[in-house]
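ok so for the tutorial part 2 we go from a plain amino acid sequence to predicted structure tokens. step 1 is just haveing the sequence, like this:
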Amino acid sequence: MVHDGQPVAARGEDDDSRLAALGYRQELARVLSRFDNFSVAFTYLSPMVGIYSLFVFGAGAGGPRYIWLMPIVVGGMLFVALVFGELGSHYPVAGALYQYSKYTVGPGYGWWVGWFYGVALLVTVAAVDTGVVPYVASLSNNWFGTGLDATSHVTVLLVTLALLAVQTTLNIIGAKMMGRVARVGTYVELIGTFGIAIILAIAGFHHGLGFLFTTQGAENAATNSLGVDFGGHWWTGAALVAILAHVYIFYGFESAGDVAEETKDAARQVPRAMRQALLVGGLTSFVLVAALLLATPADHKGYVTATSFAGGVPFILDSNISASWLTDVLLLLVIFAFFSCGSSVQGAGARLAFSFARDGAVPGSGVVSKVSPRFHTPVNALLLGALVPVAFTLMVNLTPDKDVHLGFITYPAKVSALTALVSFGVSGIYLSFLLTVIGAVVARSRGWQPAGSFTLGRWAWPVTLVAVAYLGLMLINIVAPTGLSSPRGALFNLDWVTLAVMAVIAAVGLLAYLVVAPWRSVGQHVHDDLEPAGAERRGGPA
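step 2 — the prediction. this is what the tokens look like for a chain of 542 residues:
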């Protein structure tokens, strides 16, 4: 299906010469090993962060059977990872999706992909670092009797600021330090998924394997743990919403390409890291979700608590693990998983910002693209990757006490502006993914021939088209407005609010696009020695 050897066009070409062929000089330190590159991608995907954040959403909406929706998402994303791997092998440049789209279609098109992807990354940093607050508060209260309130806006801001300060400092110190944090994070993820599953199995599961094939009445309002109504329909109702709990987890593997300029033998290692991060993430996630479901209490009341926001994963662990010290160890693992995830996302986002700025694609490009002569890291891009998430975190204070009506859009009461923005995290990722894969379709239809170490060969067209279909259908499922009273609107996308946020981000992007005029600045950075004719053809605005 794929070719992982070195073709004639790339044989004998080292990392620096390939970078030079794309019009860039080596400024970042190329110090990341294959395992480091995998670790950055894997800790961004972070099964622990995803499952601890979304288990209730998936199990509550779809019942135990929701676990079998996971292979659909992993399988769909595997086609995407194969397309990205081919692009990443041919264009091993920091900035990944932005660079791929810039070369395959044109500077303007690439700029928009980078814009949506970049905002989604910054939103994700804020979402991850604020998401760890309940676990930090719980551990602090257990150890020091602090009485921290995880719902307090002050607590959220202080914890987030502390995390960002440490993450930014470590990322500035060097790519090698980022790789070390990611490496430890990978071990923590493996211990925290397989380890918790083993502990729960030793404590004794409360259900047999057949339980995983049941819905426990999730399709009906009277028996749904979250109180939502799918009208008795599972596959055409509950499953369409419950699958989003997996959609929220299985991305981030593309960050292996964001750090390509700091990875040794990037053209070979980046495609492998993308596939491996996704597949290992799928395996570990399946094992942990299965263990949590089998460990839910056998009585109906206990099951409902375990699969609702009143209980969730902490309730399941407390119900099965009596040793308080072990609970604290698990809390530490969860906190570090969130920390390493946020660190990897921030690192990937900073490389995108650096790549953007190096092409003159953002205001203040000269400042943002500056690389520290001591640490060989994009220091100002990393600082930007801390300041913007802080600004996003402050949006938690914008929480209306009653519904706000804006034309046909109703912004629901008690929902912070940060929550609304976070809803763009996944929709923005899927939009940028879809645009990137469409870019591959455009390039291939123009006669583009990949010349990297990894190619899809005769499977290129079917793999790419399946990737387009998967991303397109899932993006529709993510953003489709179905009313605030519907399960999707109530639990996930806030009806029209997610689309409205996308429109606002697009409008801000349009303003920046017109100011920067990327068809002039970025258009000067589309030359590739392997395809000079194609570079000239794509030199104008897209």
